[in-house]
Amino acid sequence: MKTIGRYEVVGRLGRGGMSTVYKARAPVTGRLVALKLLQPRNPLFAELVGEERLKELFVAEAKTMGALSHDHVAKVLDCDEHEGQPFIVLEYFAHSLGTFIGESYRVEAPSRIISVAKTRTYLIQALKGLERLHFAGIIHRDIKPYNLMLTSDDRVKIIDFGLSRVRGEEKTAVPGMQVGSPFYAAPEQERDPQGADGRADLFSLGVMGLRMLTGRLFDARQGEALASAVNPEVGPLWDGWLRRSIARRPEDRFQTAQEMRLALQALPLGEQRVAGIREKKPERNRPVLRSQAEWVLFKDIRATLGLDELFRPLVYASQDFAVAGPLVAFERNSRLSWQRYGSGFTLDWQQAGEYVAHLNTTCWQGRDNWRLPTVDEACSVLKPPLHGVACSAWPLFDSTVHWLWTCDTCTKKQAWTVDVVESFFERLDKDGLASVCAVSSAAR
Q: Could you tell me which CATH number the domain at 95-265 has?
């Protein structure tokens, strides 16, 4: 499929039981969008429910989202039909909370433990989005990591309202339709999906918070969940907040998203590091890091860089940084100079190359050999994820920097990025957005 309506299809982002989501390019502007086309996976299900009923449900989702305007709720840009099937056009985001924590198709497999500071930031933003939804009488009923997208400037956006219920109207009460993910859905959604209220969304977000802080899914059969037993950064106040968030009975939870958010904002930030992190001792004859761009295949990068199953360094390199100026930091071991503040805005991979070319054309900071770092060079300057407050003695990276481009590609359409907040490597489509932090091999 090359086009859907007026939109050029660039690739497929995913498929669910009711629809397929494509990455597409808008006419004239060329803007990347997410295009959701009604395409029931099971023809028998479509026959059972009826095509007109499915279309009605699908368009209802567009109307639900289109009526909202909020910083933490994705926007509907367009709604139309293609060959008799409706489609919704949404904002496109290259990152999601699911990819951020490393949740795989085996949802129950361990994920990354995320710092308390970052976990709290994302949960607060999601709760603000839920406050707006619940005020409008909308119960989402499918809050999970892959339904929370992350913008290039690090804001949470709630997506996918296909299972939502609006002001008590059960538009999705059709035979055979499961409401919510079994890993994140509140107990009452299984017993009585039509009766579930906003507290079900709060339960889902609580399970997600517990997962971010422990790398594990909550299993009620294993008894009480204590994040402090897994993450030394988490204290008893956090345990209490999480325990209340995921209480099995709705009346034992926070009763509103605002109440849950205010309680979260009052919690302390941890200051400890996650136990078990090792750093390399300085080496007299440290090997020269690769500086030329290469293809680094997905199957090879863990062995190449010494990464764990979640693409974090098993051992962090020792650095010896000096601030060479307000805009440049110099690492003595590798003799590499780095931009301290980077581009200051996000770019796609091609634009990142153009940005570096601009630095060299203008002889930025007196040098004309700036370039994107290799994955080897990027790995050499990562620090164990910082918890609590940032380390003031650390000259990289500016607090606004999150994802950075490297010069190494994975496929024709993807290049490697590194998350400098939580210190892991991730593939990103070249038309996605990340920051640039250029490096120079020139001596100080």
A: 1.10.510.10
